Amino acid sequence: MLDHTRRTLLRAGLLLPVAASASAAPALPLLAPPAASTPAVLATDRAYWASVAAQYDMVDDVVLLDNGYWGSMARPVLDTYQRATATVNRGNAWYGRTVFPAEWVAAHQQAAAALGVAPDEIVLTRGATEALQALIGGYNRLRPGDVVLYADVDYDNMITTMNWLRTRRGVEVVRIALPEPATHAGVIAVYAQALARYPRLKMMLLTHVNHRNGMVLPVAEISRMARARGVDVIVDTAHGFGQLDMRIPDLEADFAGINLHKWIGAPVGVGAVYIKRGRVPDIDPYMGERAGNDIRSRVHTGTVNFAAYMALPAALALHQQIGVANKQARLRLLRQRWVDAARQIDGVDVLASDDPRLVSAIASFRLRGQTTPAQNAAVSKRLLLEHRVFTVPRDDLASGSCVRVTPAIFTTEAHIDSFIDALRHVARTG
Ligand SMILES: Cc1ncc(COP(=O)(O)O)c(C=O)c1O
Questions:
Q1: Residue 124's closest CA among 250, 307, 257?
Q2: 125, 207, 259: which to mutate for ligand 1, most atoms within 8 A of CB?
Q3: How high is the mean pLDDT in each 10-residue block of the chain (430 residues)?
Q4: Beta-strand relationship, 400-405 and 392-397
Q5: Mutate to test the pocket of ligand 1, among 135, 136, 211 (most ligand atoms within 8 A of CB)
Q6: Interatomic CA distance for residues 27 and 6, integer angstroms
Q7: 56 with 74: CB under 8 angstroms?
Q8: pLDDT value at residue 429
Q9: From the CA of 132, how far away is ligand 1's center (Å)?
């Protein structure tokens, strides 16, 4: 499997041939955090985080700093998933029809408990895209001439769906740009201005943690302002839940799309749609599904990847064992380590705030003045080809393109330092 990955990368010209070979991390048990430890103290405990990293079997061909795409499964989750796949395959329809339904209900209930919502307020989906398309496309309180709004930081496909409302609902679609550098007050002010400027504004898309520069949006504050003006918000928390110490009700929003295959580390293909109790009628039944107030009629996935949902409880259990506050603190420490160092490098602009309310695991940078997609793709490619550091270029911020850097809970300080050495070299010779 590792050899196959290497061969594919080599063929694609994305990896230089090197002597080092990939190897699995040693199977250390997950340590118990010291009883009196706080998340901030535990974040610095390298022995503890080495024991977390040992739960993951990751390539060492590259320094993986694009962990926002999806979250690798830890070994216990992968084991559960692989066993579940075999069980499903052996049992076929007999298993799917007689045993799986109860397992599905159990996974659903555990997900609802972790999200902090009632079981009848969520439906499990294949991911945030499916959830958010159902919410944005189905939101039925729009009349021709109304206004909906999104921001430059929002996710590409959600922007597409928001723009589609122009033809689907006959509404005006407004795009705003969030300020850079961002401040808590500045971001809220932009939404306050938009709410004042567009009296026919009815619905806004808010991205909790955006995938371009990683800024955390003050969703609850903006939701409260919106509610006071009768405006609904649909929250894209593809990246928020699982890496930030929060539950869905903290967003104070009635609609949210959630990913469980990013920061919870469930198998790829697991997310959820949230509709606050009482709000189901404001989302259309999904493509002609039966009407009524059952949330399950608002999204329809069809036959699911059974094993992915069977492994969800294992992912949630590990998430809870490590503790979301501890994960958040560790991810912040790793992020801050590179952000602080990168700010000292001549010619590098870091797109990140230090206000803890705006900080996630994700942050981005660009070489000064280099704002085009091609320039940032070239920087990311140099990091990979010359230094074996894997990042991803991101486009379409109002300020231009950038390179996104995302550690995971298995990332080490040494990984971050390798990236910083690489960035120093790229900036010097750039
Ligand atoms: C902010 C944001 N929203 C939505 C999505 C869509 O998630 P998925 O492709 O897992 O459905 C992503 C994926 O990266 C994302 O970053």
A1: 257
A2: 259
A3: 49 46 59 89 96 96 97 98 98 97 97 98 98 98 98 98 98 96 96 98 98 98 98 98 98 98 98 98 94 94 96 98 97 98 98 95 98 98 98 97 98 98 95
A4: antiparallel
A5: 211
A6: 23
A7: yes
A8: 94
A9: 9
CA dist 407 and 71 (Å) reads 10
Q: Which domains does the chain have, with CATH numbers?
A: 12-72+324-429 (3.90.1150.10), 82-318 (3.40.640.10)
Residue (of 402, 413, 336) closest to 370 by Cα position: 402
Q: How far is the CA of 69 from the centre of ligand 1 (A)?
A: 8
Q: How many A from CA of 199 to the centre of ligand 1?
A: 30
Q: Which residues contact 242 (CB under 8 A, 6 or more apart)?
A: 71, 259, 260, 262, 263, 264, 265, 319, 324, 327
Q: Which residues line ligand 1 (CB under 6 A)?
A: 127-129, 155, 207, 210-211, 236, 238-239, 259, 271
Residue with tokens 């559960």: 80
Q: Which of 84, 87, 86 is nearest to 73 (CA)?
A: 84
Q: What is the pLDDT of residue 16?
A: 46
pLDDT at residue number 34: 82
Q: What is the pLDDT of residue 346?
A: 97
Q: To which residue do tokens 């990955």 refer?
A: 5
Select from 235, 236, 360, 364 the residue to mutate for testing ligand 1; criterion: most ligand atoms less than 8 Å from CB: 236
Tell me the chain's radius of gyration from C-alpha atoms.
22
Cα separation, 36 vs 168, in Å, equals 55
Question: How far is the centre of ligand 1, averaged over its atoms, from the C-alpha of 159 (Å)?
Answer: 12
Containing H/E element for 196?
helix 184-197
Handedness of CA 199, 204, 206, 211 (dihedral sign): negative
User: What's the confidence (pLDDT) of residue 12?
Assistant: 53
Location of structure tokens 């689907």? 168
Helix (H) or strand (E) holding 3: helix 2-11
Task: Give the integer Cα–Cα distance in Å for 71 and 362.
Answer: 13
Write down the residue that tokens 């903290």 correspond to: 250
Q: What's the gap in Å between 129 CA and the centre of ligand 1?
A: 6
Tokens of 184: 């808590």
